[in-house]
Amino acid sequence: MSDLGHVLVLAGGLSYEREVSLRSGRRVGEVLRAAGIDVETRDTDASLVPAVLADPPDVVFVTLHGGSGEDGAIRSVLELLDLPYVGAGPEACRIAFDKPVAKTMVRSVGVRTPESVVLPKETFHDLGASAVLARIIARLGLPLFVKPSHGGSALGASIVRKADELPAAMVGCFAYGDTALIEQYIEGVEVAVSVIDLGDGPTALPPVEIVADEGVYDYSARYTAGSTEFFAPARLKPEVAEACAQLAVTAHTALGLRDLSRTDLIVDTQGQPHFLEVNVAPGMTETSLLPMAVEAAGQDLGAICQGLLRNALHRAH
Question: In the annotation, is 153 catalytic?
Answer without folding.
Answer: yes
